[in-house]
Design brief:
Largest sheet: 5 strands, parallel
CATH architecture: 3-Layer(aba) Sandwich
CATH superfamily: HUPs
Number of helices: 7
Low-confidence stretches: 1-5
Structural class: alpha/beta
Number of strands: 10
CATH class: Alpha Beta
Shape: globular
Mean pLDDT: 92
Distance between the termini: 52 Å
Number of domains: 1
CATH topology: Rossmann fold
Helix content: 25-40%
Radius of gyration: 18 Å
Strand content: 25-35%
Length: 240
């Protein structure tokens, strides 16, 4: 007699719109799990111990391209306080949708992982970090190979000049980035804050995001200022 299949895990994904959280989102989809919502932490301040700041406003369009609900949670960027604010923001969402777990893109930050695990424990749900301690080079190659369109929206490391700001990472330039990371001893996956990224398209999205931006560059670091953004559907993407 055939046993009934277990119900799919119902999860929310904590996403900044960058490479790591997006790959974790794709991992959850590939598990056959139901993504009830994507949650973006919006930092009302200039710094954060936990969360990405540049270009997180793009997550609204990413969610739209996936047909998934988008829930922003505003935090002040103050250590520990922002964790409590995340917990408070997640509570009604978790309860209303009967969520089983939270998926994050944590790579190697014990500080971040422990606090996200603590938030999930408080909420009574599972904490999933599918990229935890992944090999950095393998991680970056997987992103490119699975079809993610990865753009650098900030750079702040020796070896990463202005030409990398706004650049799309792909197979044609990854070896150059890898050589620079070895020469200047920065993390190839940007885990030390050497660069931040956003995803404009991928296998999880129906269409592609187009950015219009300006650059801010000071001394040896810079970031993109997003002036506008819009979503192009599949038909327009294929014909362009």
């Amino acid at each position: 007699m055939q046993m009934p299949s277990a119900p799919a895990m119902r999860i929310v994904v904590l996403t900044s719109g960058g490479k790591d959280s997006t790959l974790s989102l794709w991992w959850a989809i590939c598990q056959g799990w139901e993504v009830c919502a994507v949650v973006t932490v919006v930092v009302d301040g200039d710094d954060s111990w936990m969360f990405q700041i540049p270009a997180t406003e793009m997550t609204r369009l990413q969610a739209q391209a996936m047909g998934i609900e988008h829930h922003p949670i505003i935090v002040n960027g103050v250590s520990e306080v922002e964790v409590e604010q995340l917990l408070e923001g997640l509570h009604p969402l978790i309860d209303s949708k009967s969520v089983d777990g939270l998926v994050s893109g944590a790579l190697r930050s014990e500080y971040q992982r422990r606090r996200l695990d603590g938030v999930c424990e408080e909420l009574g749900i599972h904490s999933f970090a599918p990229l935890w301690h992944h090999d950095p080079e393998q991680h970056m190659r997987e992103l490119i190979d699975c079809g993610m369109e990865i753009v650098m929206v900030s750079v702040s490391s020796d070896g990463l000049g202005r030409q990398w700001l706004g650049r799309t990472l792909d197979n044609s330039n990854f070896e150059e980035l890898l050589a620079l990371s070895r020469q200047h001893r920065f993390n190839i996956d940007g885990e030390g804050g050497e660069f931040e990224t956003v995803i404009l398209s991928g296998p999880h999205m129906n269409g592609r995001i187009v950015l219009e931006s300006t650059e801010t560059w000071r001394h040896d670091r810079g970031h993109l200022n997003i002036e506008s953004m819009y979503l192009i559907d599949v038909e327009e993407t294929e014909s362009s």
